[in-house]
């Protein structure tokens, strides 16, 4: 239990340093700064695999699935790459939300900070629930597998440009609870107008991002549970991927058009883990196979996006 408490405490320290020290003064996050922080978070996450090896070799953490230290490390790295790759889809939606509510770049980091803090809590609860389901009801793995295949199909057929946050159920319900101001009031989530407490677009964007992340977690949690049901590996890989989401957003949100084929990478990954779940009792794939498929899918999507020139629309007179 102390390992869990220590890990959560370290995460909270990272978050406190982020907002209270490194980003105490609000500023627009440039691509160079975002790139440095993305490299830092990825390095921290991958270095944590050494901690995973130590914990599982020393027996300091519970090992309900009987993993060897080497297998634990492979499953952690594979799970982290899955969560990191699926986080890319979050970036596209977050960009749409910020655009819809006209959130200035200088305040976007503040919104994402509190959004990720809430996401840690929600995902923690969903992981505990998901692990408990798989442990108690073995057949639930087939339900998760079918759900992931259906999600992959929806992602293949969907068009993200159809998403309008201002037409969402969340926005409509929020308007019934709080009056919403039409303009930004600095970095405040709430302001008082004529003695009435009103929500600013910053708060609306935060709530929409928070609930959107819960929907994304419905895909990502079953995806990592296809790799392992060990609760600590699932939780740590998931949380470390989320911590790097902010810097990743500022790094690639300005280059969304360049990564137009990354969506197909995510489809392949979701379809693969879905099939892995469905055939988990018939076929046992070595962990390196999963790691290879996920890595190749991501690299192929990035290379295709950069190498294949974008077709220009021909205007008809």
Automatic annotation (TrEMBL):
Protein name (Swiss-Prot/TrEMBL): TerC family protein
Cross-referenced PANTHER family: MEMBRANE BOUND PREDICTED REDOX MODULATOR, THYLAKOID MEMBRANE PROTEIN TERC, CHLOROPLASTIC
Natural source organism: Costertonia aggregata
UniProt GO cellular component terms: membrane
Residues in the signal sequence: none
Source organism superkingdom: Bacteria
Transmembrane segments annotated in the record for this chain: 6-22, 34-56, 76-99, 111-133, 139-156, 202-226, 232-252, 264-283, 289-308
Subcellular location: Membrane
Protein keywords: Membrane, Transmembrane, Transmembrane helix
Lineage: Bacteria, Pseudomonadati, Bacteroidota, Flavobacteriia, Flavobacteriales
Major localisation: membrane
Protein family membership: Belongs to the TerC family.
Membrane-topology annotation of the record: Multi-pass membrane protein
